[in-house]
Amino acid sequence: MELKISNNTIIKPFSVGWDPADGIMDDPDNHIERCLSKLTDMFIDPGAAEAYLKEKGDVLLYEVYEKAIPQRDGEIQFCSSITHPGRIGEEYFMTKGHFHARRDTAELYYCLRGRGYMLMEKEDGEYELGEMYPGRSVYVPAFYAHRSINTGDEPLISLAVYPGDAGHDYGSIETSGFKHVVVERNGKPVAIENPRYGKME
Fold it and tell me: What is the Rg, in whole angstroms, of the alpha carbon atoms belonging to the chain?
């Protein structure tokens, strides 16, 4: 049975698969790629990011595969998120991160491969780190910006699920960044205050 709704979009049941080894979705509607050249200002050491870019080229930091599901109440968005391994100085490869445009919406990440953390931070700076490894889920509550961080040596792959009308607010992160970042110290990941918070542009 088809469901017709107010904006005349017709929803039909569908199924889709992806390989948990590489996170690539079958027949995606969108494949988003974020390379280093677009995120150099996101790192605490932009000079190190520029040097890495010149030495190793415009490496792929992360990518997302998703279906085009209407962005409205009652729907469920989902995607596969792949954060590649590497470091810029002492800071791990990461996603840009975002708030939801609707701040009062949550998100669930289920890790399929790799190791890392989900950095979750409220606008007042309160933060949590959720450990990610295969078979573990991280629940991101409403009002938390969130960023995937790969601390391992293989891709960090997760399935993300969130409300259809949650939307994304990347602009706040592009302007200010997160108040905390995750770096490697003495061979271990640790969270520190971001010395460039509020100075990302």
Answer: 17
